[in-house]
Design goal:
Elements: E1 2-7, H1 10-20, E2 26-30, E3 33-40, E4 43-49, E5 55-58, E6 80-83, H2 86-98, E7 101-105, H3 110-124, E8 131-133, H4 141-149, H5 156-185, H6 200-216, E9 221-231, E10 234-240, H7 248-258, E11 263-276, H8 284-295, H9 299-311, H10 331-339, H11 345-352, H12 379-385, H13 391-405, E12 410-421, E13 424-435, E14 460-472, H14 481-490, H15 499-508, E15 512-515, E16 518-521, H16 523-535, H17 543-556, H18 562-582, H19 584-602, E17 607-610, E18 617-622, E19 627-631, E20 640-644, E21 649-651, E22 664-667, E23 671-674, E24 678-679, H20 686-689, E25 694-697, E26 704-709, E27 714-718, E28 724-727, E29 733-740, E30 747-752, E31 760-762, H21 769-778, E32 795-796, E33 830-832
Parallel strand pairs: 1-4, 1-7, 7-8, 28-33
Antiparallel strand pairs: 2-3, 3-4, 5-6, 9-10, 9-14, 10-13, 11-12, 11-14, 12-13, 15-16, 17-18, 18-19, 19-20, 20-32, 21-22, 22-23, 23-24, 25-26, 26-27, 27-28, 29-30, 30-31
Helix pairs in contact: 2-3, 3-5, 5-17, 5-18, 5-19, 6-15, 6-16, 8-9, 8-13, 8-14, 10-11, 12-13, 16-19, 17-18
This protein binds one DNA strand through strand 5, helix 3, helix 5 and helix 15.
Length: about 850
DNA sequence: GCAAGGTC
């Protein structure tokens, strides 16, 4: 007699073989895959692990051309099931041919049943031997032996429920994803896929809803009146009973009444005992939440760690909804085991010193026990066996959580004081941990005391300080991953095993991101959710998942035929699809805008800023006929601005236009241009945007002298335009230094003439003895004066229909200037030639 | 190329 068993995965198969074969197991290879051969109860056994699902649904080939098939058509197609892991299928058939009896031994849940049926389907292609099912919820010798000694009938309904889910999820996901992606691509160029799914979309919906609340939040000012009291035993704080006071006048009034108060009276003291029970036993979601909150491990990583701890035999099956220990759970021998492990010894001993009463939750899904340790192990033992960094920490959390479940409640003493200050009521409270109970073994929870000094009723206490503090109400915080998991669990989004992957999908699609433990929505996610909430609101809410889940649960319970559930589910999806189609425009326009904005933001060279008309992105647009600044919201928004026709354009990010031009551009190496305003040198605010680098005070008025450079001349002019000018060396490279002249206070210049002549630093001021020295030395060679010369510049205009408001004018402009970018000066000037 | 569910 040969028995063949199929487990869900290789490691489970190995564990089963080692339990049933009692250590005497041969590892063999079937079609290149590992399997295990042994003898049990006189029979020849083969156990092989699958790799989860080895089959999958998809649409027939001809429906895979996105551009040729209307997505709605997919809803009427029955997808095909095919083998995704050919090597596994071959191995299953190979073993099935040798079998006199086949046992499905996958995980004990809906998907496990379905995976077993995949092996059953494949086996039935080559044999017709009896196929039964072994059900066990822990890979412990006791559970496994019991399950294989008493195999049962495979559960057809359970397997078909999973089948219905697969088909409905595929239909909905494929049709909606293609529809949204293709519709958006009609408006914005993108290769990205905008996916929709019955789990991923409501998951994003939770993040969106929180973001909406945060954005709509209006902060309010409030005042709080506090006192610091001094008793014999020390200081403590009291808060006026009015708490957060939202009217300023009221706070001022109370505070006025308190003015000059030197002491307070303790009118009442109450001491209460409060108990905090241990947390409920760990089911998957609770474990993932705590791993994120206490250990900072992402849900996805935490699940992987738990899986490995389970496969290595340290902890129980990690995918469970149950948070209630079975009535016959053998706590005692497990705790005894922990009593031998140094790290946990004291807690285990205290548990064993009294009758064991476990803390239990309410949920019993009859699937697996709560996640608990299978045996006590030291950190190094875990690290050696499971090669994942956080394995030891995760085991420690699971072990301590289990021990905490068996320990007494923590006892706190809470003291509350009522005080009067000039008849105004104040409250003060403190907490002291009297008996740590389970908190002893559970260092993750905060158990800080807030101490109060000892005071008695009727005691008078001094006042050290009275304050009336203004604060602001703050918006709700962003969701944490732990909170998101709670919401998903509460609304039945995904299974305990897949919740982390739905979070990952949303991140991959660019819908939201996680920073540390918090989750923040991204623009694409926000606009997509907004679009869906206006067209098919049910999609972003958990309802969509619960409707499908309810249908397939009926199949599992045998209350509904598989075909009927499929029809009903498809009808529901078709209805939603019709709504989506009818509102295509509303749905896609804002998403397309966001995608275009994101592309424009990425294009750093052409990015200008935000459009004041529509809020989208302004960018430099280059066409065959010219260039201009346009809005990414085009054609809905036609806001645009002209640009000069020639010269390379560079956006000066650090410059700000005082006339509210959208941005400042450098044109070639020549001049600056404010988008929407025109050339900066034509602007009356130019000096505010480009304050001149002054040389020193003007000797004629209270202005300052600064360097003015034209194409073929340069001189110093006065910022107040008093008419006083001053010559500078005509040739050579002039640099204004930070050093000043000790005699007159003007800044020194440095001159580098052409050729080999050395650089020299000097004062240029003719009214200064130092300056006179310089001019005497250089002689008459610099005695020319500059001439402003006009040159033209033309500007390209955007296409017709634009709302350009700046116009181009032919105008004079300065040439590049090596020293300072001084503004042009027109009008008379008188040259000072010294006296 | 699309979903969610397994597992690696």
């Amino acid at each position: 007699m040969t028995v063949v068993a199929f487990a869900e995965k290789n490691k489970a198969a190995a564990q089963i073989a080692s339990i049933l074969g009692d250590g005497e197991v041969d590892k063999i290879s079937v079609e290149g895959l590992p399997a295990y051969e042994f003898k049990w109860k006189g029979e020849e056994w083969f156990v092989m692990g699958l790799s989860g699902h080895i089959m999958s649904y998809d649409f027939p080939e001809k429906y895979n051309k996105w551009n040729e098939v209307d997505p709605g058509v997919l809803l009427g197609i029955y997808p095909e099931k095919f083998v995704t892991r050919a090597e596994y299928a071959a191995a299953v058939k190979n073993l099935a041919k040798r079998a006199d009896k086949i046992i499905l031994a996958c995980d004990y849940d809906r998907e496990g049943e379905n995976i077993g049926f995949e092996a059953k389907t494949l086996s039935e292609e080559v044999t017709n031997v009896p196929i039964s099912r072994a059900r066990f919820s822990a890979l412990s010798p006791k559970e496994v032996k019991k399950a294989f000694e008493n195999p049962v009938e495979p559960d057809y309904n359970m397997a078909m429920a999973a089948e219905a889910r697969q088909i409905l999820d595929l239909k909905m996901g494929a049709a909606f994803t293609r529809f949204v992606t293709l519709s958006v691509r009609e408006k914005a160029r993108t290769k990205d896929i905008l996916s929709i799914g019955p789990c991923q979309t409501p998951t994003c919906g939770f993040v969106y809803e929180r973001e909406k609340i945060i954005r709509a939040f209006e902060t309010k000012d409030f005042w709080k009146i506090t006192a610091i009291f001094v008793a014999k035993g020390g200081e403590f704080e009291g808060i006026h009973r009015a708490g957060n006071i939202y009217e300023k006048e009221k706070a001022v009034e109370i505070f006025k009444r308190l003015k000059g108060a030197k002491e307070g009276l303790v009118v009442k003291k109450t001491v209460k005992e409060a108990k905090t029970s241990p947390p409920n036993p760990l089911n998957t979601t609770e474990y993932l939440k705590r791993a994120s909150k206490f250990l900072g491990i992402s849900p996805e990583a935490a699940l992987e760690v738990a899986e490995q701890l389970y496969l290595a035999g340290f902890t129980s099956y990690p995918r469970t909804e149950t948070n209630k220990y079975a009535d016959d759970f053998d706590f005692k021998s497990l705790v005894f085991d922990f009593a031998r492990q140094t790290e946990y010894k004291p807690f285990a001993e205290s548990i064993l010193s009294a009758p064991i009463v476990p803390k239990n939750g309410e949920k019993d899904a009859h699937d697996h026990p709560p996640i608990h340790p299978i045996r006590a192990a030291a950190r190094r033992e875990i690290s050696a066996a499971v090669n994942i960094p956080q394995a030891a920490e995760a085991y420690d959390l699971i072990a301590r959580h289990f021990l905490a479940n068996l320990m007494p409640a923590a006892v706190f003493e809470k003291t509350h004081l009522q005080l009067h200050v000039k008849e105004e009521p104040f409250d003060s409270s403190g907490t002291v941990l009297k008996d740590a109970g389970w908190l002893e073994v559970y260092p993750f929870e905060n158990k800080k005391d807030k101490l109060l000094p000892f005071v008695e009723e009727k005691e008078k206490v001094d006042i050290k300080k009275l304050s009336n503090t203004k604060s602001k109400t703050s918006p709700p915080k962003k969701l944490t991953e732990a909170e998101l998991l709670t919401l998903m669990d509460k609304h039945g989004i995904g299974t305990k095993a897949t919740a982390p992957s739905h979070i990952e999908t949303n991140k991959k699609r660019g819908y939201f991101e996680t920073k540390g433990k918090t989750v923040s929505i991204l623009d694409t996610g926000f606009t997509l959710m907004e679009g869906l909430s206006l067209t098919v609101p049910i999609l972003i809410r958990p309802d969509i998942r619960s409707k499908i889940e309810a249908l397939i649960q009926e199949v599992e319970d045998g209350k509904k035929e598989f075909e009927a559930a499929l029809d009903e589910g498809t009808a529901l999806i078709k209805e939603m699809y019709a709504q989506l189609e009818a509102n295509k425009k509303e749905l896609t326009s804002s998403i397309a805008g966001t995608i275009k904005d994101e592309a424009a933001l990425e294009d750093k060279k052409n990015y200008i800023g935000t459009c004041k008309v529509c809020g989208h992105v302004l960018k430099i647009v280059q066409t065959d006929t010219g260039r201009f600044v346009g809005c990414s919201g085009y054609p809905d928004c036609r806001n645009s601005f002209p640009l000069p026709k020639t010269g390379a354009l560079n956006v000066l990010r650090s410059k700000e236009c005082k006339k509210e031009g959208a941005a400042v551009l450098k044109v070639g190496n020549k001049y600056n241009w404010a988008v929407g305003i025109g050339p900066c040198f034509k602007c009356d605010l130019e000096k505010e945007c480009y304050p001149p680098e002054t040389v020193g005070p003007c000797p004629e008025c209270d202005g300052s002298m600064f360097l003015i450079s034209f194409k073929d001349s340069r001189f110093l002019g006065c910022t107040k335009r008093c008419g006083y000018t001053h010559s500078v060396p005509k040739t050579g490279k002039l640099t204004l230094l930070d050093k000043t002249c000790g005699t007159c206070g003007w800044k020194l210049f440095r001159l580098k003439e052409e050729g080999d002549s050395p650089e020299e630093d000097f004062c240029v001021n003719r009214r200064c003895t130092e300056g006179i020295k310089y001019w005497r030395k250089t002689g008459p060679r610099n005695e020319s004066r500059g001439q402003a010369k006009a040159s033209g510049d033309s500007v390209s205009r955007p296409e017709a229909g634009s709302t350009a408001r700046s116009t181009a004018r032919s105008t004079a402009r300065p040439t590049p200037c090596k020293v300072s970018k001084g503004p042009s000066i027109t009008g008379e000037r008188k040259e000072d030639r010294g006296k």
